[in-house]
Amino acid sequence: MSDDDKLIHNLQNNVKKSQSDLDANTLGQLRAARRNALDSLKHKSTLWSLLKSNLFFERITNHYIVSSVFVVVLTVGFTFTIFTLDDSAEQYDMDIVAISEELELLEDLDFYLWVADTVENES
Hints:
Elements: H1 3-19, H2 24-42, H3 47-52, H4 54-122
């Protein structure tokens, strides 16, 4: 017998000896407490016990609420991003048009400078 087994055996003997000194009311309370402790071990948190209780539905409902809020936030965020990108794409297109118009103006200006130089050189 190991030291732990001896200790447990001695403790059990001491408890049994001390029970003989207790009155009937205290012994009844101890039996009730023991029954409650054993019953709580039988009713561990299994899926079936959770299904029978409202706790399961409360947990599932909370998860659905959180996930739904998350989906809504992501949807609004992506939608806002898409519309923002569309606006910036239009602005980018407008910038390209403006640049091309500036290039045409510069080409025209370059042509006019060439014409002016040609006229001056001929005179």
